[in-house]
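User: Hi! Is it possible to get a structure for several chains at once, not just one? Here's what I have:
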Amino acid sequence: MSTAMRALLIAGSIMTALYVLRRVRKSRMRTEDSVFWLVFSLILVVMGLLPNAVSALARFIGVMSAANLVFLIVIFLLIIKLFLMDQRISALQRQVTDTAQAEAIRRRRETENRAGQAAPETAESGRQAAE
Amino acid sequence: MRLLVVIPAYNEEASLPSTVRELRLKAPEVDFVVVNDGSGDRTADICRAKGYPLLDLPTNLGLTGAFQTGVRYAYEEGYDAVMQLDADGQHDPAFIRPMMEKMEKENLDLVLGSRFLTEKRPRSLRMAGNALIEEAVRLTTGRRLTDPTCGMRVYGRRVMEHMAYAPTARPEPDTVAFLIRCGAKTGEVPVSVREREAGVSYLSLGKSIRYMVQMGMNIFVLQWVLKKEPWREQTGRPA
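Assistant: Yes, the chains can be modeled jointly so their relative placement is included. Here is the combined structure:
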C-alpha cells in the first residue's frame, strides 16, 4: 500500500471521527448513531497504520493488492450500513402510518362526541345537508 | 350484519359527492366513512360541509394506508364487515347488497367482486396481468379467483384484525392469497366496474410493471415467509 494511500486513510478517518463527534456534541446526532461511524473511522485508521497486516490479509484471501482489500472492506461496511438504514426507514414508515391512522381515528371520535353533545341526530341532518 | 363502507379519497373533490350520493341512494342501510388521504384539494372541506363521516389523515399514506385506517376504525367500532369503495365512481354501490348477502348466507370471511364471473375477460395488457395473478393465486392456494385485482372486496370480522393492524396487509391480491392460505373462506359475486369519472388514478401505467413484479414476489415468495395466523372465532358476532 502506498504512503499516499495510508495518509489518505488516516486523514479521512480522523476527519470523519472529528465531524461525527462535533455533531454529537451539538446534539445533531444521537450517540447510538455515532457508534457506527466511530468504529468505521477506527477501522480506516487501523488499516492506514498497519499496512503489512492489510497486505498479509489480502494475500491470505487472494485479493490482488492491499488497496483492493481496503475498498472491499469499505464497501462491505457501507452495505451493512445501507441495510440497517433500510430497516430503520421501514420501521419509521410503519410508525408514521400508525400514528397518522391513530390521529385520524382520534379526530373522528372527537367530532362524534362533539356532535353527539350538540345534536343526537347528526347522521340525519348530515343526510339532509347532502341533498 | 353491520357493514362499514370505506371510501379512500385522495384529491377526489370532483367525484366524491356523486359517489356518496349514489351510495346513499343504492345502499342506504350501510354506514360509510370517507378517508381523506392527505388530499391537497378540498376533499376534506367537502366532507365537513356535507356532513360525511370523515377520517382525516394528517399526511398522505397511499391507498393501502388509507384503506387500512378505515378497516382499523371499523374493527375498533365493532363492525362485522368492511369494504372498499373507490371515490372515483368506478365501483357501483348496487353490488354492495348482493356481496353482503353472499357473505352472510355462506358465512364467508371474504367476498370478492368479479368482473369476469359471468363475462369473458377482455384481451388487453392489463387483463393479461390480471390473468397472470389469477394463475399465481391458483398455484399457491388452489383457489381460482376470476378477478383478483378487482377492488370491490368485503372483509369479514375474522380477517379484519389482520387487515387493520398487520403492516404487510394490503387490499391487494397478494394479501387475499395469504388470507386464503390462513383458512379464510372466500366467495365471488359478479360485479361491473365503470370508467373513472374524474381525478387521477392511484395506479398509473408506469407503476403497473412495478405492481406486477411486487405481486409475483409477494404471492410466490414472501407470503410463504409470513407467519400464518389461523382465524380465531370472534365472539359477539350476530348470527
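Confidence is low (pLDDT under 50) at residues 234-239 of chain B. The first helix of chain B runs from residue 16 to 26.

User: Great, thank you!
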